[in-house]
Design goal:
Elements lengths: L5 E11 L3 E11 L9 H14 L5 E7 L3 H7 L22 E6 L5 E6 L4 H18 L3 E3 L4 E4 L4 E3 L1 E3 L8 H15 L6 E4 L5 H14 L8 E4 L3 H6 L8 E8 L3 H8 L10 E6 L10 E4 L17 E2 L7 H4 L3 E6 L4 E2 L22 H4 L10 E7 L5 E7 L1 H6 L12 H14 L4 E6 L3 H16 L9 E3 L12 E9 L4 H13 L11 E3 L3 E4 L1
Helix pairs in contact: 3-4, 4-5
């Protein structure tokens, strides 16, 4: 379903008479389109879905535009069924806790419902909403340790802001466009230049809102992108007086300074707007539409300014010194250039120490022998079973008979198996149930051999398959061990567990069975 409104909430401290301060949940509903009443059913569904995942509000703030204020007033009148979709909210009782404002064609904010909001609160609301849009849509790009970014300005950093990632959902783009209408406060431009074509949709949404707010405004507005900062700075471009420059993001405001210092381009600072700014210099902060900088009270979801290194001014990049590869952010949409791939020859000395414990699995008796560990192996003639990693346990267990002395290639494996069996198989063992594969039966017989070697006389006739459970003498006291050469999914264990429950079903008297089942014995999983 296409969303007809942008909904978000935030927690803010408010003063309550005779109670001091308390934290209140503010619900913001933004409506950018005409025919609000026609879309009421969709809006109600959106509210229901929102409150399925979010807490109930203490205050409601409705934001509309001059062309839909009357329908919004009707939609949120005291008898409206819209309040049924806002849980535990009593509009009559809390009439002072609902406010409605609309944006005029001149970018001013007017009240149409409830308590009038202060200007600083309205600015905070818009800033919090735009910050949420940025965070939710992945506007902050963070590099891996192997590489970092080089901005168009030449600075190096492991993070950068990419506003193009943010402009995804229609109502959210309109929310940003409405903030631009407020920022420009009635100014009109015939040309809009974006520093990247990825934010052209914001420029077009601004034009759409502007013409809906002022139907008499019939001038054409042209939208273009720079192409790249390098092309822009090297060109002989000269701006006209009625030109607006939209900067997608800035972490210092340096780009504004470079643009206005080149007097040949005829760009005035008041004709520049930075959509998203982070830690921008105080002088250029008034050009920022959304300030992403973290503030514990006004913008707790904001970003902490990140470190960058101005290599062009001789500053040493600690990321480069640490071995990270610098990847240039370039082009019209600020895409990463293709990373430089450096070949690296892997030597035997590069083997990590933990692989030494698996060395026996890689050894081969002769050139004709198959490897024990195989990758992307297809088992069986029909190749129905496929494994990313396959261990040929059958071959390892077949070598047990030749286990003489410490020179055997699997001697380390056999020593571990014997030690594990002696420590974990109880002396009360009466039966072993092997899973339905050849290696599991071989492992069970190997365990039997080890037990006899250590003085426990186990009869090989008591090695059973999972279909031989009925032959177990339930009058015998002792232990049953479940043997598996390896575990991939555990489905056979699940089947066997059910079969054992049926086989050893308790009598109505509540007597417990005399045979107990140990935890499954499995070599690999």
């Amino acid at each position: 379903m296409m969303k007809k409104s942008f909904i978000f909430s935030f927690i803010r401290e408010i003063s309550v008479p005779l109670q001091g301060t308390k934290k209140a949940n503010h619900l913001v509903l933004f409506f950018p389109y005409k025919a609000v009443l026609k879309d009421q059913a969709d809006i109600q569904v959106q509210l229901r879905e929102y409150f399925y995942r979010n807490t109930i509000p203490d205050k409601i703030i409705i934001i509309g535009l001059e062309f839909n204020r009357n329908e919004l007033l009707e939609l949120f009148e005291s008898e409206s069924e819209i309040y049924r979709y806002i849980p535990h909210y009593d509009v009559e009782q809390n009439k002072d806790d609902i406010s409605g404002i609309y944006i005029s064609s001149q970018g001013t904010l007017e009240s149409f419902l409830g308590k009038k909001l202060k200007d600083d609160l309205v600015r905070e609301i818009f800033n919090r909403g735009m910050t949420k849009i940025f965070n939710d849509n992945g506007g902050l790009i963070i590099s891996k340790s192997a590489h970092h970014f080089v901005f168009p300005s030449g600075k190096h950093s492991d993070k950068f802001l990419r506003a193009g990632n943010v402009l995804i959902h229609g109502t959210q783009i309109m929310y940003l466009a409405s903030a631009l209408i407020i920022y420009l406060a009635g100014k009109r431009y015939n040309h809009i230049y974006c520093d990247t074509s990825s934010i052209n949709s914001l420029a077009y949404s601004y034009i759409y809102l502007l013409k809906d707010l002022d139907p008499t405004y019939g001038d054409s507005i042209h939208v273009e992108s720079f192409g790249s900062y390098k092309m822009f700075e090297e060109s002989t471009f000269e701006a006209k007086r009625d030109s607006l420059f939209l900067i997608s993001s800035s972490t210092s405001g340096g780009i504004v300074k470079r643009m206005v210092e080149d007097r040949k381009k005829n760009i005035e600072v008041e004709n520049i707007a930075i959509v998203y700014g982070l830690d921008v210099e105080a002088y250029y902060k008034r050009q920022v539409i959304c300030d992403l900088t973290n503030h514990k009270d006004l913008n707790p979801q904001g970003l902490v300014p990140f470190k960058s290194y101005n290599v062009n001014r001789g500053q040493k990049c600690e990321l480069c010194i640490g071995g990270s590869t610098a990847v240039e952010v370039k082009g019209d949409v600020f895409l990463l250039e293709k990373p430089v791939v450096n070949g690296q020859l892997i030597h035997i000395t590069d083997v990590p120490p933990f692989l030494n414990k698996l060395g026996a699995f890689y050894s081969k008796g002769s050139q004709e022998d198959s490897s024990i560990i195989r990758c992307y192996y297809k088992e069986g003639q029909d190749h129905q079973k496929k494994y990313d990693i396959y261990i040929d346990i059958d071959t390892v267990l077949n070598e047990w008979e030749t286990n003489v002395g410490s020179t055997h290639r699997f001697q380390e494996i056999f020593d571990k198996i014997e030690k594990y069996v002696v420590q974990n198989i109880p002396a009360s063992l009466k039966f072993m149930i092997a899973l339905p594969d050849q290696a599991s039966f071989k492992l069970a017989k190997l365990i039997s051999t080890i037990l006899r070697k250590h003085g426990l006389n186990f009869n090989d006739d008591n090695i059973l398959g999972i279909n031989d459970l009925e032959s177990i003498d339930k009058s015998i006291e002792g232990t049953i061990a479940v043997i598996s050469s390896s575990t991939v999914s555990g489905r056979n264990f699940l089947y066997l567990s059910r079969a054992l429950r049926v086989c050893f079903e308790l009598e109505k008297s509540g007597n417990r069975p005399k045979l107990e089942v140990t935890k499954p014995i499995s070599l690999w999983k």
